[in-house]
Amino acid sequence: MHPEPAQPGSRLVPGTAVRWRCTVCGFVFEGEKPPKGCPACHSPSAEFMEDSGRKQLTYDGKPFDVLLINGSTHRAGNTGFMADLAEKFLRERNISFRRFNLSEHHIDYCWCCYAVRAGSCTYPCRNAKDDMPAFHQMLAASKAVIVVSPINWNGMSARLKAFLDRTTCMNNVYHLKKPGHTEGKIAGILVNGHEDGAIKTAMDIWLNFEQLGYILAPFGIGFRTHGAEFNSKTDHEFFRNDEFLVHQVRGVVTNVIEMLHLKIEEKLRGKLIPVTE
Question: Fewer beta carbons under 10 A from the terminal one: N or C of the chain?
Fold first, then answer.
């Protein structure tokens, strides 16, 4: 999202140098350290980051194996913890990766160019002014993607939905009879939430990648929920002490890695027939 200028609800402390922005709601605070909690959305201090002005994300072109995406609105919440575990297991296996928290980035809604004219929706995306073009390049350059998602109303977050919507240009190249950039790559999906909706959320995410030509790793979906009978404020402690959650994350990451070792993308290059919507 855009770094916002100080607004009427912002808390500015005169004489201090550091400007902090809540990545959830955009609240701005100036002080030596971020506030203990956001007074606007009540997110904890870990959701604040230094606000040095928006800089468009760029990709340096260096190859890497796994693109790890935290699709939660809360980068330091329970979904972020699952992403931390995934990162840990990737490091243990010496797999090159890049991890991104979508709440730290600006991604516009899809312009739906396809609805106007099919030929207008192509790769590179016509919207080159936000962070999504860099993500497009990294999806094309990486060998696999692992998406970690919360459950919001039995589905993914709005941030993650906007991210996936913006991959339409990579899907539409097949309809325009142009070379694709993602077929044969590997996908893994991790989901967590307070209660129901894990499988639906995972399948909604998977459908997008299936249409891009990705292959779901065997046992490539892992999820963990706490339960509607518990107060959501207890989720933090539950997830951080739950061995089954660790097992799920380790399993999905391991299975993605083992698929990578098979070099399926290279073996399938030029042999697949795109069948997409």
Answer: C
Could you give the CA distance from residue 55 to residue 274 in angstroms, rounded to a whole number?
Answer: 36
Q: Is residue 62 within 8 Å of 223, Cβ to Cβ?
A: no
> What are the residues facing 221 on neighbouring strands?
189
Over the chain, what is the mean pLDDT?
Answer: 92
The set of residues, in sequence order, having a beta carbon less than 8 Å from that of 38 and lying 6+ positions away, is 22, 24, 25, 27, 44, 45, 47, 48
Which among 115, 102, 111, 106 has a CA at the least distance from the CA of 69? 102
CA distances from 8 to 12, 29, 253 (A): 10, 11, 44
List of residues 6+ apart from 167 with CB closer than 8 A: 136, 139, 208, 212
pLDDT per residue over 15-73, tens digit each? 557 899 998 898 999 998 999 889 999 988 898 988 887 789 999 999 999 999 999 99
Domain 66-268 adopts which CATH fold?
Rossmann fold (3.40.50)
| Residue ranges of the chain assigned to CATH 2.20.28.10 | 11-50
CATH architecture of 11-50: Single Sheet (2.20)
